[in-house]
Structures are given as structure tokens and as C-alpha cells.
Design goal:
Chain B: It catalyses: L-methionyl-[protein] + a quinone + H2O = L-methionyl-(S)-S-oxide-[protein] + a quinol; L-methionyl-[protein] + a quinone + H2O = L-methionyl-(R)-S-oxide-[protein] + a quinol. Chain B: One of its GO terms (molecular function) is oxidoreductase activity. Chain B: Heterodimer of a catalytic subunit (MsrP) and a heme-binding subunit (MsrQ). Chain B: Its cofactor is Mo-molybdopterin. The complex is a heterodimer of chains A (218) and B (314). Chain A is mainly alpha-helical and 218 residues long. Chain A has one domain: Four Helix Bundle (Hemerythrin (Met), subunit A) (Up-down Bundle), CATH 1.20.120. Chain A is 73% helix and 0% strand. In chain A, helix 3 packs antiparallel against helix 4. Chain B has one domain: Sulfite Oxidase, Chain A, domain 2. Classes of the chains: A mainly alpha (218), B alpha+beta (314).
Chain lengths: 218, 314
């Protein structure tokens, strides 16, 4: 994702109060703590394993959506949450790890034959696994050292994989449910809106390049 | 979490405490005490007289709490907890079931009359959901065959079609902007399937009249088939010549067949049906158990499908 504003760091718009990033991690992990606490105390309803598994997956998707919302918020509403984007992205990854671990350990009981059969035969599992694999390099390079080592442009290119992950995540959600219930459809619409915005904006900038842009779009 | 509002109820409908305390289920000790806790404060309680059945399983029952709080009843929403929260609005009394189509004696049957004119049996059945979970539920009801015999099907009646109540004002799921199914909910059986002794019309569970989320006041239970075949809150039963177009089959015919017999060897296109999770068993650490052909009722029903390719007629 291109972090630079085309007109430099405009300082108008909302002044977002700054909170320490560690606070975001702590707040972001509250749902996981709540789920595990109630899970251990058998307080997650009739089908606790499924509830845990689905909730963790949903939180991963929510943080993915939040990560993708940072750029449009800045460009459209001039709300700059850029300094929290890494935390949002990493929280998405942490929830994806917990979601996958729940599937592997609690749902499938580490029955690797069954898990492999799922991966090769069930498109929603195939897509879910692929989405998780995409998230790994993004999480691994979500640090300043990686940005320095790779250089900003290469790093930004790699991190565009998040768009693929977002599509994978909603497909995974849509394929696991019966019929077409509202919730996955709403998340799909949000993801499509966030990606569609970027697509339209980049097409627009190709047709009408910004006069002060240092380089033309490739 | 369920927040129950007190039901509108006549004093005469309230079962005396002494009756509760003498109920067979309550003698079972801790399970009974848990049950009593679940029932106290609920108005609709009406204890049913039942006889035992040799068709019952002796497996451990799923708790009343789980049976009444984890439901698929999309007319009240797609979340498992939605029916328990929203189904209270369904008015289940008075209730009549219209029986029509290819029968000698069509008619309207009130549920109260059906209960009075039947010997209710307790049928403890396994229930396997197409989603991969299962329960063991003590239903109270009577054989579907009893009703079928009363209405005298004609020779050309080959199938039985069932229809759930369609009441948008009482069923919030029907007001949804995203209709999950083409309402009203329709299910069907071949006539010989419907005549099988395992098929019952249930009016209660755990010795009490059905709660709305479980399909009150009358529902179908066909334990060798996936749960969605067990149509709830039935208002109409029609005898027809052609295979009825059933709701889930119409929604996705490659995923939900007309027969929908439980079969570990025929997967749902999107997930395996080889194993299942028994609700209430193991909490977070629930262990999958193998799913049985015809949900373990092969002895009673396999002959209905002899010579049929179960992969084709799933």
C-alpha cells in the first residue's frame, strides 16, 4: 500500500488523539482472552469449539478490514491512522493463527490425514489455507528492519498481497455457510468496496496523472 | 444468553410443582435437577403422558438446555441462538394441520385433538445435522403412519409434502432483506418412507410440549435423515403424485438432495460427512465420532433404498 500522500503530509482534517500502539495490541487481544476464558469454563454455548473457531476467524477478518480501511480513511476523510496500521495488520495475523490452530488442534484433533483431505478436497479449506500462507510474509515483514532491508517500493509491492488475502478471506467465509446468509455477504460487500475504491482511484490516476507526481504510474 | 419474558398463560395451564417433582425424568438425580432448573419459570410447560419405545436408543441424552438453545430454524434467523430468542412470537395455539391432496379423507386436524387421540411415545433418537454435529433427543410423539392411515391415501399418492407456517409478522427471519430460502419451508418424503415406523410427528421433548424453537406445536422427526428434513411447525401435509420441490433442494440441489439420508460415504460437496461432533460432549475438546450409515438406523430403513445408488439419490 502506498503510504505517501500525493500532496505531502497535509495536516488538516481530524486530529486523531494519539494512543500508545501497545494499547491497541492489548485492546485488540481482549476478544481472544474473552473467548479462551469462556471456552475453558465451558461457557460458549452448546457447540463451544465451533463458536471459538468461528469467532476467531471473524476477528481476523475484522482486523483485515480495519487494516484496509486505513488508506481510504486518510484519503477521503483525512483521518490519519497510519501509525496503527501495522498493529491492525498484525492483530489480523494473530487471530488467523489462533483460528487455524483451533481448526487443527480442537476441530480436527491433529488428524493430519483428515486435514490433508480437507485441504485438497474442500475449496473453503484450500482457500483458507492459501489466505493464511499469504499473510505469513506480510506479518514477517511488518517491522522497520524489513522495510529498510527491502526498500520501500519492494516492501509496498509485497504488501499489496493483502488484497488477495482479503478476497480469500471473504470467499472462505462465503463457502463455509449454508445458503447466502447476511453476515458473510456484508463482509464481502465491505471488502469489495475497500478494494474497488483503490482500483478506481488507481485507474483515475492513470488517466489523469497528478501534475506534481514524481513519476508516472507504471 | 436467553432473557425470557414471562409467557401469557392461564393459571390452569401451569403444571403444579408436585407434578414436576414426580416426573420420571426428575428421579434421575443431577440431570433431573438441572432439568427442573431449566423448566421453572417457563409458562408453557404441559407434561405429556408417554410410553416407552423399543426404537429408542440408550445413548446419553443431550441436555435440555442444549436442545433448546442450539437450533436451526431460519424463519427466526440464521444464528443458532436466534430461534430461542425470537421464536416466542410464534402463536402455536390454536393450531391446525391441513391434510389434503390425494387422500380419501382430507381434513383439518387440531394439534390438541391429535394429542388426545394418540398414544404418545417417547422416542429417543439420534439427530444428525447436515452441518456435522449431532444430538440425542427424547422426542414425544406418535407415528406419522397413524395419521396417514386415518386420512386414507389414494393409490396414486406417491409422496407426502409438508409445509411450515409462513407468518412474516411472527417470524422475523421472513422479513430479512436476504431471504435465505424460498419460503414457506417445504419438506417431503416418499410415502413408504413416511410410513416407516421410525418416522414420527413430535409434539414434545423431554416430556414437555415442544418449545417454539424446536418446531412447536408439531414437527416431523425422521432420524435416519439429516436434520433439515425434520420440518418444524407444520401447517399442511399434502399427498401428491410427484416428488415435491423441497426448500433446501431448491436452494442448492447439488448440496441438499431430496432424500438427504445420513451417509458418511457421500460428502456434502463443500465438507466431509464422515464424522460428527456430539453436542455437549467434551466442550472445547470435543472429539469427533464416526457418522453411521442412515445415522445408525440401517436395520430399520435400508430396505427402503435397496437397489438405489445412494450417491445419485443423496
Amino acid at each position: 500500500m502506498d503510504a505517501r500522500s500525493p500532496r505531502g503530509a497535509a495536516k488538516s482534517g481530524f486530529a486523531v488523539p494519539q494512543v500508545p500502539k501497545i494499547a491497541l495490541y492489548l485492546v485488540g487481544l481482549i476478544p481472544a482472552a474473552w473467548l479462551f476464558y469462556h471456552g475453558i469454563n465451558d461457557n460458549l454455548g452448546a457447540d463451544p469449539m465451533r463458536y471459538l473457531e468461528q469467532s476467531l476467524g471473524l476477528w481476523a477478518l475484522r482486523f483485515l478490514v480495519a487494516t484496509l480501511a486505513v488508506t481510504p480513511l486518510r484519503q477521503i476523510l483525512n483521518v490519519n491512522l497510519l501509525r496503527y496500521r501495522r498493529a491492525l495488520g498484525l492483530l489480523c495475523f494473530y487471530y488467523a493463527v489462533l483460528h487455524l490452530t483451533t481448526y487443527l488442534v480442537l476441530d480436527q484433533g491433529l488428524d493430519f490425514a483428515a486435514i490433508w483431505a480437507d485441504i485438497v478436497k474442500r475449496p473453503y479449506i484450500t482457500i483458507g489455507m492459501a489466505t493464511f500462507i499469504i499473510l505469513i510474509p506480510l506479518a514477517a515483514t511488518s517491522n522497520n528492519a524489513a522495510i529498510r532491508r527491502l526498500g520501500g517500493q519492494v516492501w509496498a509491492k509485497i504488501h499489496r498481497l493483502v488484497y488477495v488475502a482479503a478476497i480469500g478471506a471473504v470467499l472462505h467465509f462465503l463457502l463455509v455457510v449454508k445458503s447466502w446468509p447476511p453476515e458473510p455477504l456484508v463482509y464481502t460487500a465491505i471488502v469489495l468496496a475497500l478494494l474497488g475504491y483503490r482500483l478506481i482511484r488507481s485507474l483515475y490516476r492513470k488517466i489523469a496523472p497528478q501534475p506534481r507526481s514524481p513519476r508516472r504510474a507504471a | 444468553m436467553l432473557i425470557r419474558r414471562p409467557a401469557d398463560i392461564l393459571p390452569s395451564e401451569i403444571t403444579p410443582r408436585s407434578v414436576y417433582l414426580n416426573r420420571r425424568q426428575l428421579l434421575g438425580g443431577a440431570a433431573g435437577l438441572a432439568l427442573a432448573a431449566g423448566l421453572s419459570g417457563r409458562g408453557q410447560a404441559a407434561t405429556l403422558e408417554t410410553v416407552k419405545s423399543p426404537l429408542s436408543t440408550d445413548e446419553k441424552l443431550t441436555s435440555l438446555q442444549d436442545v433448546t438453545s442450539y437450533n436451526n430454524y431460519y424463519e427466526f434467523g440464521v444464528d443458532k441462538g436466534a430461534p430461542a430468542t425470537y421464536a416466542k412470537t410464534l402463536k402455536t395455539s390454536p393450531w391446525t394441520v391441513k391434510v389434503d391432496g390425494l387422500v380419501g379423507k382430507p381434513g383439518e386436524f387440531s394439534v390438541e385433538d391429535l394429542i388426545k387421540s394418540s398414544t404418545l411415545e417417547e422416542r429417543i433418537y439420534r439427530m444428525r445435522c447436515v452441518e456435522g454435529w449431532s444430538m440425542v433427543i427424547p422426542w414425544d410423539g406418535f407415528p406419522l403412519a397413524d395419521l396417514i392411515k386415518r386420512v386414507e391415501p389414494l393409490g396414486n399418492a406417491k409422496y407426502v409434502a409438508f409445509e411450515t407456517a409462513y407468518r412474516p409478522e411472527e417470524m422475523p427471519g421472513l422479513q430479512s432483506m436476504f431471504p435465505v430460502l424460498d419460503w414457506p419451508y417445504v419438506e417431503g418424503l416418499r410415502l413408504d418412507e413416511a410410513m416407516n415406523p421410525l418416522a414420527i410427528l413430535a409434539v414434545g421433548l423431554y416430556g414437555e410440549r415442544l418449545q417454539n424453537q424446536n418446531g412447536a406445536p408439531i414437527r416431523l422427526v425422521v432420524p435416519w435423515k439429516y436434520g433439515f428434513k425434520g420440518i418444524k411447525s407444520i401447517t399442511r401435509i399434502s399427498f401428491v403424485e410427484k416428488q415435491p420441490v423441497t426448500s433446501w433442494n431448491k436452494q442448492a440441489s447439488d448440496e441438499y438432495g431430496f432424500y438427504a439420508n445420513v451417509n458418511p460415504n457421500v460428502d456434502h460437496p463443500r465438507w466431509s460427512q464422515a464424522t460428527e461432533r456430539r453436542i455437549g460432549e467434551g466442550g472445547l475438546f470435543v472429539k469427533r465420532r464416526p457418522t453411521l450409515l442412515f445415522n445408525g438406523y440401517a436395520e430399520q430403513v435400508a430396505q427402503l433404498y435397496s437397489g438405489m445408488d445412494l450417491r445419485k439419490f443423496y
